[in-house]
Amino acid sequence: MLFSKQDFLNTKWFITEKLIQLLVGIFIIPKIFNALGVLNIGKLKFAETFIAFFAPVLFLGLSAICIREIIFNPKKTKEILVTAFYLRLFSWILFFLGLLIYNYFYNSNELFWLYFLIGFSYFIRITDVFEYYFYAIKKTNYIFISKISSLFCIVLLQYYGVEHQLGIQYFASLLIIDFLLQGIIYGFIFITKTAIKLKNKYFSVLMAKYLLKNSYPLILSNLLVSLYISIDDFILKYYFGDAAIGLFATIDFLVIALTWSIGFSIINALYPSLAESYKTDINIYQKKISALYKYMLLLGVLIGLFYSFFGTSILTTFFNESYASIATPLKIFSWSPIFIFLGMVFEKHLINSNQLKKNVYRFMIGCFVNLILGLLLIPTYKIMGAAISMLFSHFITNLGFIIFDGKNRNHLKFIFLK
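The structure corresponding to this sequence follows.
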């Protein structure tokens, strides 16, 4: 067996979490969309998109690098975690000061509070450095406990907000509560279940330089990803306003938030096993990455088929009539996870083999393709144009790049042959 029992146990926890989120999301999120309407959803989505554009600077690309380094150098775990924590804290302080200055000069009161609430939630997310450790030691049950406990509380608060017809600021503030609850639970588990005691003295300037040196290609590539997935929102807002963003956000919710996250979790759960094999046995590593490519290819096809057959029924059953127009764009965009999943597995290989500069190149290409197609298609075809633009750019970024990358073209046989 390529992957161990512990690897599949880790995957089981992640899949269970995402399936619970899927079931909850199907019943509660459409109620929020219906209650707020496409215009307010569009405002909230645009605020989230604007903040998320700077998320790579906040996260500093540390997640995958820290997990890799904890696996490769377990004796430096304390130093890695403490250093990552303070790097994240410093980056957030700089970001939030910039956000306050920007909003003071350029935004309305309503948008200011949306940006403030969403931006402050990123401060609470600094505690996800605990996740790095739990990922690396394959204790994903702790992550499951934290996220499901938080999800239960947030769903109750979301239901309360829907029943009392509360506004977008209320739902934006739930992001803070969500990450705060997760952080408290992570901290409690870390203190009670591990022998590691984190202190300031473990912060290392040398480690900080080392982590940033290794993560900067991820920072650049993640910035490009943020731009890449935001382009369509900016073009839609320019031509058609917040309501169009609200409609596209619904597609994004159904395909990305509900189903794509399952594949994301599987890849992250199995990544420590990939990293270990890359260090110890390259033949086993190639067999594992080939198997993972095939798992993700199958999942992507299943998602595409699911929305192709049931997309219209989902919209008519769970959403009001204002969302009926996105049935066809939903079916088109639902095939994107196939290419996204393949690209995510390929990115893990680039991390392991220290080829992260190629991640920057492929997302530069993706940004260019999406921008050109968006400008050509969205003014005429609206949401349909955005869906087509995103689907084709995902193909070019994730599969097309592998085809033209001579050093890694052998991954095509890992995907389609072995």
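The first helix runs from residue 5 to 53.
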